[in-house]
Amino acid sequence: MSKVWIALGSNMGEGRKNLDLAIKMMNERGVLVEKVSTYIETEPYGYTEQDNFVNAVCIAETKLSPRELLEVLLKIELDMGRVRIIKWGPRIIDLDILFYEDLIIDEEDLKVPHIEIQKRSFVLEPMNEISPDKIHPVFKKTVHQLLLDLNSCDI
Questions:
Q1: Known catalytic membership, residue 16
Q2: Fewest 10 Å CB contacts: which of 26, 43, 132, 155?
């Protein structure tokens, strides 16, 4: 089994229920969620003319390869009704692979670790709650340190 970290977000409908359903669907499809952060409400990133998001991060174990995991997450998004129209636009659910063990993958449609972790407080804050000592394999910093670095830039 491989350990994975997945970001969850929703700003359409009932966000908390959408995250709950996505976690249930992951468990049913071979992504066994072990720990989930507190759900937090955050302002939109990128395209800001939309409702606030509910965000969380979970730690899971899976036998799926990184590619298979991506396909399962995309299928869950589709099954929940996600339509991709506007980049960073409103979504019923968004599921992103943050880390897959300590692998570094750089393919056109699969980047692990997620390439914007270090820029996103809505990812780092919940991840810091459940996995502060996870080391980013590219930056060689803990999640906690990445969050401190990001917060020092916001001052």
A1: no
A2: 155
Domain that residue 40 falls in? 2-153
User: Which residue in 29, 51, 79, 82 is the catalytic one?
Assistant: 82
Catalytic residue among 16, 96, 109, 133: 96
CA 63 remoteness from chain centre:
19
Position 70 confidence tier, pLDDT thresholds 50, 70, 90: very high
- The CATH number that applies at residue 136 is 3.30.70.560
Active site residue 154: no
For residue 102, indicate whether it is catalytic.
no
What distance in Å separates the CA atoms of residue 94 and residue 103, rounded to the nearest whole number?
22
94 is catalytic: yes
User: Rounded CA gap, 112 and 40, in Å?
Assistant: 24
